[in-house]
Structure to design on (242 residues):
């Protein structure tokens, strides 16, 4: 078996990451496929109030995370595995889009991810400048809306990444059909009963014709993607798979 994917998370709200121990990700950790360690940024402060933020130079609203606790935390954590290099990830609304493609790359190539969760108005820019020189560093965004901090984004990204690690998902075949694989959204699914509140399951699905079922599903993926995500549809048509 290959080495487990290692994930470190640095946050001022370690409890926020408790769900990483549940469900599929908890099982993956118990099975040795995944290692998650959550760290409290305040462990790298030295004052009585365990201060991690201060007011912005130049003025403006809110508070900025100081570089000194981040520097100590990142030095300690990123240097904790001799001979190994982490991929640093800072979640933030101003980052590159976190996509299925990015999740696949991180699950496959990195081996070790360190997430730095910012809060308030963000982290002092010199932290980015410093660690970009030492490690691969990505600022990644979930989408075009603003969260209060990186913690919820880390939950989302970790789940998307970890389920792509070989062995984590029970049924690897379900990876091949799901939304965003191949650039299309998923087809609609149905189960028993065949009639519910006068609503029928599409008859083709009960026909036993596997070829017809596959073409119906493919057509549904195209129809859905065109209706809901014209941006994805354009990209898909660009690949001329159809
Ligand atoms: Cl990754 N972080 C924060 N704070 N807000 C976001 C986000 C990330 N993605 C979308 N909004």
């Amino acid at each position: 078996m290959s080495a487990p994917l290692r994930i470190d998370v640095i946050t001022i709200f370690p409890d926020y990451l408790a769900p990483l121990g549940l469900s599929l990700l908890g099982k993956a950790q118990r099975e040795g496929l995944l290692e998650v360690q959550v760290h409290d940024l305040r462990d790298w402060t030295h004052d009585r109030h365990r201060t991690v933020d201060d007011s912005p130079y130049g003025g403006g609203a809110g508070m900025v995370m100081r570089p000194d606790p981040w520097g100590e935390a990142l030095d300690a954590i990123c240097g904790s595995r001799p001979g190994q290099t982490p991929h640093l990830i800072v979640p933030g609304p101003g980052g590159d889009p976190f996509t299925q493609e990015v999740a696949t790359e991180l699950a496959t190539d990195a081996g070790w991810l360190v997430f730095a969760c910012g809060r308030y108005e963000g982290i002092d820019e010199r932290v980015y400048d410093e660690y970009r020189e030492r490690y691969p560093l990505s600022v990644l965004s979930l989408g075009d809306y603003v969260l209060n901090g990186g913690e919820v984004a880390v939950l989302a990204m970790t789940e998307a990444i970890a389920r792509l690690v070989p062995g984590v998902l029970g049924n690897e075949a379900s990876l091949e059909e799901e939304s965003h694989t191949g650039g299309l959204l998923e087809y609609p699914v149905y189960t028993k009963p065949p009639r519910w509140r006068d609503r029928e399951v599409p008859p083709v699905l009960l026909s036993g014709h596997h070829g017809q079922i596959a073409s119906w599903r493919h057509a549904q993926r195209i129809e859905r993607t065109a209706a809901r995500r014209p941006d994805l549809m354009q990209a898909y048509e660009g690949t001329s798979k159809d």
